[in-house]
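Case study 2.
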Amino acid sequence: MNKRISTLLAAGLLMVGALFGSANAAPTAKAAKGDLQNGAKFYLGSTNGYIKVDQTHKVNGTAVSTFAATGDAAIENAALFEIADYAYNAIGDFSTFTLKADGKPFYVTKANGNALSADVTDVATVTNIFTVEGKGLNFTKLSVLNLAGQFEVNSAVATKYDVNAAGTAATAWVAKTDLTVDDLNANLSGQGFKFAFPNAVSDPDVNPFADQMIAVGASTVDAALTTSVISTAATSGMYFVKADAAGKKLLATGFTKAQVEAATFIVLNPEKNFGITGLDAATGEGYDFTTVKGNKLANNNVKKDGKVASVNGVFAVSEDDPQNAEGEYTITLANAKVEGNDNTPASSLSVGAYSLTTGGIKTYITTVGSGNADKLSLAMTTSNTWAAAADVLKADDAAIYNISFLGTKPANTADAAKSLYGKYLIPTYGAAFGAAVAAPEDVDVNAPLAQWVVSAVSGRNFEFKNRETNVTFTVSMYKTDKAGEYAISTAALSTGTAVTGIVAGSVDLTDISNWKYQIVKLTPITESEGFLALTDAQLSQQTELVFNGTGSVTVEKLYMAYTGSAAPAYFVPINNPAYSVQWMFEKAESVKNKMKYAYLDGTDVKQKDSVVNIATSYLLYNLKNDNSKQYFGGVASDYKAANDKDNAQRLFFKKNADGTYAMMRFAKAQISLATDALSYSAVVKADAKKWSVNTSSASFEAGTATLDELDAPYSAVTVDFNALSESLEAVARHATFNSEEGAVAVKQNKNGILEGIIGEGMTFWLDTADIDKDFHSFYISKGNGEEEARDFLYFATDSMLHWDANKADYVYNVNYALEGSYVAADGRDGDLKAIFRPATLAGLDTISTTVNGETVLVAEEEEEDVCLGGVDNFKFYIMKASESSYVIRPISAPNYYLYNLNGKLGFTNQVEKALVVTLGEGDATANEDVEVATVKVVSGEGNVTITGAAGKKVVISNILGQVVANTVVSSDNATIAAPQGIVVVAVEGEEAVKAIVK
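Prediction:
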């Protein structure tokens, strides 16, 4: 590497790499030039067509290429060859080398140069050594070493190797790409580009292309200036405009005459020639560049008026050899007028860095004719904002992301419906896979359906493949000033252009082709749980299947019962849990999704195969009297019990966003196919069916409801393990809840809400409820100083999402979302906070509380003018987690567990996060953690700690009224010695409280 390139790279200024080519601009074939050398790349063919290869065969076990019988008239569809093992024989003036084609060794038969027709084990019968005359890429024919023939291209669609040389010899070509204005402007987030000349021998004194420029179509500019200014408008080419406010305005608002006249254009300066020896000024060589306002562009150069011929600023840019000189751009002026007012025409000029080496090194950015074009150092782009592989990929590991959208927050509900903001990109199931954007509440970020693996990187394009469905999202992106957030340049989905989940607006974002400049956020994710995966401990427990109703249903839950007395016996849905079949689970076959992921090996992008998703099927069984297993089996709609394991149904449980499951049924043969890919696609397919209930015939259906039918009757299944079979004994008591993370306590937060926290232990009242049911529950409350009213633990789902009369809509209240569990501003994607609500027990199944300032009764079911429904939100299961520990679950949402996040309590449906507690003996008189307004009193062992009372007088007395401490505390966290037993703490200006000192 020359010193100049090294310096630029070290400074981080140079971006080596091709600009993003226009999707509509096909490359042009151009004869290759330069020296033969290892790594040199080219296409083989002629103007009749270009050779393609067949990669279906192997040589001694290694996959190889051989030429295909059919070629292609388009060079971009042909095989790219690469030289290796290069050697030059000076005596005979010929070169030998081996070839790769499309990345694999290129072989032909040694006897006659024919294509391989089958796998080869005898390597002596084939060869990949080739020869040409001379040592340049401009060879006239390519031959197999020791054979007289050459590669031939006989027509636009047929190619072959012909030892009789009957056709046109195949020579070396490269695919020249012409750049568009969009290609150039895309380099800096759609706002322009810069050029540097890093391969020049020395730095030029002046680089007229060093500042940010914008490319604009020449014909559009000339048309705006009108024929009175430019009589013959350009039909091709582009102007380079300074990217100042006037220049950027052309991109934003268009091309009026006034706007064009205000912009600053870079043009060949017809008045200034460098006078470089060997360059001919009369033919346009050796000229400098200058800038002029658009109002100075004209038909001809007029020095006295400061006018310059418009053709002096009409450039073309191309990447002439992207195969061997990627990122080097040829700048040309098709026509120019030079020698000042003489307006001498000059054509086919090239622009680049021209260096002198005599009389001291000096470099000019100037013009030359075709005869001197090879002496120029070409332009390269600098300082681009494209997202690079290093920004997105990991080193030697898969990069997996949730893909969501940011940008400008919508102003109102109508705008939100048209916006991507705050939503996630997910595939959809149906007749065929589709794509949608969905709100966080409808997305499980830990499910593979919401996770995207970076599977490939090609140029600026990143291919994200969905971890579950293999739907691909291909995108090129610009970096923003925030890590992990990017602006989209181009985007495409393998499912097509349509996107659901939003409605069309003035910019129709239901069409992915309109996503340019939308802000996408890539959030790394590692956890993945898309299908039920049971631990060994869970496999040893009994469970039941609960089929949950949605919408307006008469019965909220149905269960699976076995009608053994019927002929034949079969399984039916039933609404009485007492008859629910208790199942044991047994692991059966798994299906695996394997895909390639892209990763970084140093600076190189490589790919590796990996299993990215596993779905495990399960057998359901129970034990008969003889201790043998009876499986859930059968066919069609009978689903009879099966004694033979091979005839048992294989059940997959696909997790829904709300924590329930879609249950999918397969026979063993359906998922035990020849390859992993076939087995996986038999389960994870667009029109996969799930279990539901036919409410008319009162029967289960496995082949009717598709996964996208979220409201299919009773299709949301809860796999309810028999954790409910062992509960805390149904005896009213006082108790503390202690855990390794701390004890459960209550605190009033700044919003006036009593919230559950982890702190010093408090004594709670446990009142029994539902003692006549199979699984009894408890009211959990804390005394608040009033004789009857207490503060009850409450599952506040109706407070988190509630009806707002002013908006005539349901809205979220972030105050009831657990801090740290959500991203959305209104908390909709968070977990529910555990709160305590003042209330009074009015009966076993009735609570008296206050709603909107009015005292109301809350019972199991709503009764007009009598009571509200929802008393179950006050009831909780206290279920055994081990012999001496418990978990707390709301009876109205038994899939959820009380848990701790950063010292505050909430509810989660992830059982592994559940707060496991032990019960300590409580004391009805205890008030060990009490808040008095902003003052807090906490008892300890032999002391009392008072917080928030700095500067206040504190008096502590025992139950006999004897003062044991009388002091003014000097800090907001004062600890005062006190005797064991009940003490009364009086803080100046606050009500006295009792505390128990241990």
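Residues 245-253 form the longest helix (9 residues).
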